[in-house]
Write a structure and sequence with these properties.
This protein is α+β, with helices and mostly antiparallel strands. It contains 20 helices and 13 strands. The radius of gyration is 24 Å and the shape is globular. This is Transglycosylase SLT domain-containing protein.
């Protein structure tokens, strides 16, 4: 999941000197000193907020920090959690920073990574911008559970907040769950849907896992280390440290941890310290414009038709629903996420009584021949290769279908997919397994490598059908269980 630390180029030594003033190096830096380069380079300076946390709060341990901020001890959550956002600042930046409660780590590694990220502010900014649709939900959930809000920043070093991120170890999504851990925490993984890539569904699982790790070790730094290398790895390191006459805290057991994990916690602490001293209000204003909501459907739909009816760009809808792998949403793979604006337009279009009944799916299932090329399949089905790739999430380097079912646009008079998954055969591409084992990298100016899912051609180009609905409000499960979700009952035109 994580890459080896890269040394910053010499030409950035001047910026390193500026970054040396950040907390953790000398212990006397102020909030306004931290990551001044982030505010200067990116013009993020706004009026200072009066409710920023003090630097001393970051040096307390997790339990005392939670207590001082009015948060319950995660080992002993209150029986009646407070309502969401009750009595809290409406500013996302203030809520995020005020809830920080993971102990600081004074080490050379934190200093090194502080200098590194201080000279790569574009990475942190891009990650925070990508977090816009999800961060409010994640912070809400952490506050509800009484967990430190620092944890909302963990996806920055895991995935850069890109739900398409994939590692060479097959870890996926913003929280980078490997398949086995995902299954352990109830994340559905099929050829049609991978909930590890659903940011909010995966958030519930990630916080469940982190809480369990904290309950086991009683320390958030050790919980983070365990999240990276596994609880067994940390437990064995503690045993070896005790045999050597050392303590069981993260610093004491570090020599017996994998090098990746030795760097993982300092990376997180460095990013947290940087963000703790940065005024994010202007940057996080984007979150107010990125409000999303959940829709559940009583029948099959496809993202292309939802995009056309709601007016939400298809590539944005796909990114928001990165867990939907083939663009088709069956009744068993609900829900989907959509912008509030898109939902409003969708309800308007569906509520028009002067139009005939519509269908929310304009795709059909077609079975490929064994070892058929995409070109041959596209010609046989009278569709373009680009459409087939885009709808079915097929990487540009894969061109031979080993076996399985693909979804393609319906033509005039054809019946759309009925939603019966039992009639489908999972799609397999020749060379797919080899591709999944390769890291696809996105690099910044210093070649800091981040795992990234192979890109998909977004232009599908088919004409959507029409639909009709009866809408009602309900509650959904998981992290969004305390949020309203719009339910749509579909009546297919006969």
């Amino acid at each position: 999941m994580l890459q080896k630390r890269q040394k910053p180029p010499l030409r950035l030594l001047a910026l390193f000197v500026i970054a040396l003033s950040i907390v953790g190096l000398a212990g006397c830096a102020t909030q306004d000193d931290r990551l001044g380069t982030l505010r200067e380079i990116n013009d993020l300076s706004v009026e200072n907020s009066n409710d920023k946390p003090s630097s001393n709060a970051q040096d307390n341990d997790a339990k005392s920090s939670a207590k001082s901020s009015g948060k319950s001890d995660p080992n002993h959550p209150s029986e009646n959690p407070p309502p969401l956002n009750s009595g809290k600042s409406s500013k996302l930046s203030s809520r995020l920073q005020a809830g920080f409660g993971i102990a600081n780590l004074n080490s050379n590694a934190v200093a090194d990574y502080t200098r590194f990220y201080g000279s790569h502010t574009d990475f942190i900014l891009q990650a925070l911008q990508k977090s816009a649709p999800y961060l409010p939900y994640i912070i809400d959930e952490l506050e509800y559970r009484g967990m430190p809000t620092d944890l909302a920043l963990l996806p920055i070093i895991e995935s850069g907040f890109d739900p398409r991120a994939t590692s060479s170890a097959a870890a996926a999504g913003i929280w980078q769950f490997i398949p086995s851990t995902g299954k352990r925490f109830g994340l559905q993984q099929t050829w049609l849907r991978d909930e590890r890539r659903d940011p909010l569904t995966a958030t519930s699982a990630a916080l469940d896992y982190l809480q369990a790790l904290y309950n086991q070790f009683g320390d958030w730094q050790l919980a983070l280390a365990s999240y990276n290398c596994g609880e067994g790895c940390v437990a064995k390191a503690q045993t070896k440290a005790r045999q050597a006459g050392r303590g069981s805290d993260f610093i004491s057991i570090s020599p017996w941890l994998p090098v990746e994990t030795q760097n993982y916690v300092p990376r997180f602490i460095a990013v947290r310290n940087i963000i703790a001293g940065t005024d994010l209000n202007r940057l996080l204003q984007a979150n107010n414009k990125a409000a999303i909501t959940q829709i559940n459907f009583s029948g099959p739909v496809d993202l292309g038709t939802i995009s056309a009816v709601s007016g939400m760009p298809l590539n944005d809808l796909k990114l928001l629903n990165a867990g939907i792998l083939r663009q088709v949403v069956t009744a068993n793979s609900n829900p989907i996420w959509i912008s509030q604006e898109g939902l409003s337009r969708l309800k308007t279009e569906l509520g028009k009584t002067d139009k005939p009944m519509l269908s929310l799916i304009s795709l059909k299932a077609a079975k490929a021949l064994p070892n058929e090329t995409l070109t041959h399949f596209a010609i046989r089905q009278n569709v373009s290769v680009e459409e087939v790739r885009s709808i079915n999430g097929i990487h540009a380097s894969l061109s031979v279908i080993a076996s399985g079912t693909l979804f393609i646009p319906i033509k005039g008079g054809e019946l759309a997919f009925s939603g019966d998954e039992s009639s489908l055969t999972p799609l397999r591409m020749v060379g797919e397994e080899k591709l999944l084992k390769q890291n696809q990298y996105v690099s910044n100016s210093d070649k800091m490598l981040l795992a990234a899912h192979p890109s998909i051609i977004e232009n599908s180009g088919w004409i959507p059908g029409r639909l009709k609905l009866v809408g009602s409000q309900n509650k959904s499960r998981g992290i969004s269980g305390r949020y309203s979700s719009f339910h749509i009952d579909i009546a297919n035109k006969k």
